[in-house]
User: What shape does this take?
Amino acid sequence: MITSPANPRIKMLRKLQNRKYRDETGWYYLEGPRHILEAVSQKAAIEYVVVCPELIGDAKDFLTRLSADLRPDQLLEVSPETFRGFSTKDGPKGLAAVLHQEWASLSEMKPEGLSWVALSSVANPGNLGTILRTCDAVGVHWLILLDRSTDPYDPTALRAGMGTHFSVKIVKAGFGDLVDWKRAHKIKMIGTSDRAEQDYHQVHYPSNCILLMGSEREGLTSEQVEQCDQLVGIPMAGRADSLNLAVATSVLLYEMYNQKRDKK
Amino acid sequence: MITSPANPRIKMLRKLQNRKYRDETGWYYLEGPRHILEAVSQKAAIEYVVVCPELIGDAKDFLTRLSADLRPDQLLEVSPETFRGFSTKDGPKGLAAVLHQEWASLSEMKPEGLSWVALSSVANPGNLGTILRTCDAVGVHWLILLDRSTDPYDPTALRAGMGTHFSVKIVKAGFGDLVDWKRAHKIKMIGTSDRAEQDYHQVHYPSNCILLMGSEREGLTSEQVEQCDQLVGIPMAGRADSLNLAVATSVLLYEMYNQKRDKK
Assistant: This one.
C-alpha cells in the first residue's frame, strides 16, 4: 500500500490535470468506478489503476474484475488519505487510473458506416465530451478534431463523455487532409451554418457523409463553407441566433439517424 | 466614478456569485455587453448597471443606448481596476449589472402555444442554461423547474443561456401543483424514460403539451412516471445508456417543433 503523496506514480495523477503535461506524456487521468470499468471492458490502453479499497463500496467485486484484466504491477493500492489528495471528486469512490491517449488517423477510416463528425476548433471540453456521447448513441464511430481543438482528454470532456471515449475513435487532422480524404473516397461533406438557406429537416442525408460543425464562437470559416457539398441550417423561432454546439450537433445527428431508421 | 472596492454596490457584485446571497436578495449578477444589451432591450428588471468606459470598445455608442433606457442613478462608472476586481471573465468587456430575478407562477401560464418544458431536479446549471436556449429556439415560452433545482441565475446557467433568460419565463412549482394544472386545463404530459417502449420519433405530439424531463442522475421518479399521459424514449445504438440532459431535451423539442412545422 502506498501512503506517500511523493511517490512518482501518485504525483503523476495530479500532474495530468494539466493539458501541457498530458500533451507531453500522451497520458491522461481518469476517475470513477463506472469510467474505469468501461475502460477495462473496452480494452483501453491502461498504464495503471489506483485503488483505495476503503473508499469502494463493493471493493472485493471490483478488485476481482480488475485483476482478471490487469497485471499485478498495474494495480496500486493507496490509503484513503492519499486517494483524497489527488481525487478531483467531492465524494471520491476509490478508483482512478492513468491511461494512454488513443488517437486515430484519417487513413484508418474506412469509407463505410453511418457517418463521421468533424469539429472545427471546438473550444469547450464539455461540448466535446457531450458530442462524443451523442456520436456513440447514433452509431458514429469516428470523431475528427480539426485545427486547434480543446483536449478530449480534459477532465471535463471525460466527465461529459460518460465513457464513450472508448467506443468512438478520435482523429486529429488538418482541414486540407480531410478534404483530400473525402474527395478520394467520394464522400459528401455537409456543413451547418446559420446563414444556410436549406432547412436541415428538409434534406435527405446520404447513408455515409461527414457532418462538419464550426466552432462555438465563429462557426465555419469561409474556406470550410466553400469545401462543403451542402450547407444546412437549423431553424430557430426565438431571439437567440444559435444553439449550443453540442445541441446543434445532436439535433442534426438524430435527424440523420432517424432518416436511416425510417428507411428500414 | 467609483474607485473603491468597498463601495456597497460594488461589493454586492461579488457577493451575488454566491447562491445563498442570490436567494436572500432575489438579485443576480450579469456580465458582458451582449447579455446586458439583451436585458435592456427585453425590459428586464435592472437594478443598476456598472460601466467601465475604458474597457468597452464602442463605449460612446453603448452609453448612449443605456442612458436612453436607464435612470442616471442606475448607471455607475468604475475604473478598470475596480471592474477587474469583481469581473468573472478573463478579458472583461466593461459592462456588468445587478438584476432582479424574475419568477413566474403556474397560474400565469395560459394553456395555449406550443408547449411547456418541466425539469425535475435539474442539477447542472450549464444544462439548465442550454435548455433555456433551446426553448427559446423552438418557441417554448415557459420553463417549469420542479423540486430542488439548480439556480437558473447561477453564472454558468446565465452564460449557457446566452440571453434567453429574458425571452423564456421561468416557473418554480411543486410536481403536485403541475399535475393539478395539467388536469384542470386538460393538457397532456409526456415524460421521457430510457425504459419507455415508445420511440419518441414515432409519436404524434399534441400542439400543446408538457414535456417532462427527469434529473441527470435519476431520471423521472416512479410517481412522475405514473402521472405522465405518455412515455417516450430516444433510441440509442451505442454503449452509453443515456444522453446528456440538455441534448435529450433538445432532440425531443426539435421533433415536436418539426412536426408542427411539417403540418404547415
The longest strand of chain B covers residues 46-51.
